[in-house]
Amino acid sequence: MQTDYAIIGGGIVGLSVAWGLLQRGRTVTVLDGDDGSFRASRGNFGLVWVQSKGMNQPRYAQWSQQSAKIWAEFANELGENTGQNVPLEQKGGYDLHFSEETLEATVEKYEELKAKLGGDYPYEVLGHNALHKEEPHIGPKVVGAILHYQDGHANPLKLLLALAADVRRMGGKVLNGKTVTDVRQPDGFQISCVDGSTISAGKVVLAAGLGAAGLGPKMGFKAPIRPQRGQVLITEKLPKLINRPSLIARQVDEGGIQIGATNEEVGLDDRVTQPGLSGLAAEAIAAYPALARAQLVRSWGALRILSPDGLPIYQESTVMPGAFLVTCHSGITLAAAHARLLPDWLEGTHAAPDLEVFNEDRFAIS
Ligand SMILES: Cc1cc2nc3c(=O)[nH]c(=O)nc-3n(C[C@H](O)[C@H](O)[C@H](O)COP(=O)(O)OP(=O)(O)OC[C@H]3O[C@@H](n4cnc5c(N)ncnc54)[C@H](O)[C@@H]3O)c2cc1C
């Protein structure tokens, strides 16, 4: 039997899209790879983040804002449908600075972006003393912070679990161990998996994270994505130490402090390294000195999925109409947009969001 949509990839991006399509009454089969796959959705930092996004492309800033605005409603709906809470806090987030120069330079860029966004960029600059009132554990080396009110953080693993549960509840099939090796379009789509099975679908969404780099060109996409390693640390559960998240550290809903993440161009290597982890720890202690006494309980590395300009790619194949590439750097932030807004683009309705700037034409390579 033919499914309306086959989604290749069962990470946050594939499941968010699957969820949105199921909500519209489409039949959906999610084909996910094996346990050896790289899976950013299981190793990320959990920020639902707006500030610093789209500094050179305001549409990306807007797209992130749109998603952040509808995230709470999306998380609530997932919670109600599945009985699985998706913890989310959206009371702002910080970009912490250790020098006046970097703080001023960033504010200058934010002002430019704010003007391009018609003023919709609610942030405030806090000097050290004002920041200290908000964050009593902040260290003396932090000269100040940009507090952006559209920022927040979530529990990304609980999001992944709730999404998978709700996709199944709505009748979606989520098949694991189904690494796709080929996609053909003689009559609808025929999708071949490594185990010899074939799935027929009316449309295909390639949301395979780093797996799209290999499969994309077979479907007529450039898919110029690359891995970038991020190492992350987490401490034991602690009493409240951090009120709002930053790009350096956040206190997760369960109490541990998550510290991260590095940005390393090391290919398909997701191991942790001693210099990477000690660099993260040193920066976090500079920001919150009390962390020097915290016990670390876990560290891991995971690979980001980056396009050359860091922006998402939303592209319909010209070679295989009905096949779409969906990939992005910030799948947690964009989960709500992918679930609630992107299906209109896939379905070509009058409500489709304008995603023109995110197509692959912007990349010169073929
Ligand atoms: C360290 C780190 C920190 C991050 N922090 C944040 C953050 O704070 N906020 C935020 O918004 N984002 C963050 N991200 C990014 C976010 O995690 C990713 O954007 C998101 O997880 C990408 O989801 P995905 O579904 O595209 O990819 P993945 O989670 O990698 O999933 C891809 C899936 O495709 C499957 N697959 C691959 N090839 C095939 C194939 N041929 N056939 C079938 N299936 C296949 C794999 O098995 C895998 O399950 C971070 C990422 C990292 C690494």
Explain this structure to me?
It is a single chain. This protein has 366 residues and is an alpha+beta fold. It has 3 domains: 2-52 and 157-224 and 309-363, FAD/NAD(P)-binding domain; 93-149, no CATH class; 226-306, D-Amino Acid Oxidase, Chain A, domain 2, CATH 3.30.9. The protein has 9 helices and 18 strands. The protein has helices spanning 12-23, 58-82, 100-116, 128-134, 156-169, 212-215, 274-287, 335-340, 342-347, and strands spanning 3-8, 28-31, 47-48, 88-89, 93-97, 123-127, 144-148, 152-154, 173-175, 180-184, 189-193, 198-206, 226-237, 249-251, 256-260, 296-306, 313-316, 323-327. Strands 1, 2, 9, 10, 11, 12, 17 and 18 form an 8-stranded mixed sheet that branches. Strand 14 (249-251) and strand 15 (256-260) form a beta hairpin. Helix 1 runs parallel beside helix 5 and helix 2 packs across helix 5. The longest helix has 25 residues, at 58-82. The chain is globular. The protein starts with a strand and ends in a 19-residue tail after the last helix. Residues 8-14, 31-33, 37-41, 43-47, 49, 178-180, 207-209, 211, 215, 230, 232, 261, 302-305, 327-333 line the site of flavin-adenine dinucleotide. Flavin-adenine dinucleotide binds at residues 8-14, 31-33, 37-41, 43-47, 49, 178-180, 207-209, 211, 215, 230, 232, 261, 302-305, 327-333.
List the helices and strands and how they pair.
Elements: E1 3-8, H1 12-23, E2 28-31, E3 47-48, H2 58-82, E4 88-89, E5 93-97, H3 100-116, E6 123-127, H4 128-134, E7 144-148, E8 152-154, H5 156-169, E9 173-175, E10 180-184, E11 189-193, E12 198-206, H6 212-215, E13 226-237, E14 249-251, E15 256-260, H7 274-287, E16 296-306, E17 313-316, E18 323-327, H8 335-340, H9 342-347
Parallel strand pairs: 1-2, 1-12, 2-9, 12-18
Antiparallel strand pairs: 3-8, 4-8, 5-7, 6-7, 10-11, 11-12, 13-15, 13-16, 14-15, 17-18
Helix pairs in contact: 1-5, 2-5
Bound molecules: flavin-adenine dinucleotide (FAD).
Residues 8-14, 31-33, 37-41, 43-47, 49, 178-180, 207-209, 211, 215, 230, 232, 261, 302-305, 327-333 line the site of flavin-adenine dinucleotide.
